[in-house]
Amino acid sequence: MQFIIYYIIIALIPIWAQVKVQRTFKKYAEVPNTTGMNGAEVARRILDENGLYNVKVVEHSGFLSDHYNPMTKTVNLSSSNYHGNSVAGAAVAAHEVGHAIQDKESYGPLRFRHSLVPVANISSNASWIFIIIGLLASQTFLLIGIVLMALGVLFQLVTLPVEFNASSRAMDQVVSLGIINNQEEHDARKVLNAAALTYVAAAAVAVLELLRLILIFTNRSDD
């Protein structure tokens, strides 16, 4: 019964976070910002103010698919944010530019996260293979799986300060440049805080799973 409750909880945490961010975004996607600037214009304005003339702003398909690509030096905005002039779109666009500013300044946690990408990709794919074998037959394989999973968890934990810092930079930029007013600042923070929940939820679930497996390994070792 305890395992059932546990799995229900770890299943509901990311679902709740996703529902929260979608509801918040949709609410403020219907609220126009007072400047009338669309997301592409907001991103371009902040980039230029920070001397990032080489970074392009491009439209990207998908809902909330917005991201910054450090390899191509592009701020990719989903169509609704690229063309729309909402408070939500301005907040998201500014957040992605926040990552571009981090990249320009060689922000430590961002660099560390980039260095972990290849390791995290391999460990996330391979960890459960070792874990399943380990749970069925071998403590050694279970330990290897736990170590690989820990590397993936580390990546998710490092992502948190990167995302929070990008949001902080975003708010500083849109306020100082007069892109949003005082009331819109409150609304924009709600959008960015809701988006951050998805990263917090993913990290929380990953940590819980890692701790559960460590407990299993420890109990088996004691036996």
UniProtKB/TrEMBL annotation:
GO BP term (any one): proteolysis
Recorded GO MF terms: peptidase activity
UniProt entry keywords in alphabetical sequence: Hydrolase, Membrane, Protease, Transmembrane, Transmembrane helix
Protease found in the keyword field: yes
Transmembrane segments: 128-155, 196-217
UniProt superkingdom: Bacteria
Name this polypeptide is given: Zn-dependent protease
Organism per entry: Heyndrickxia oleronia
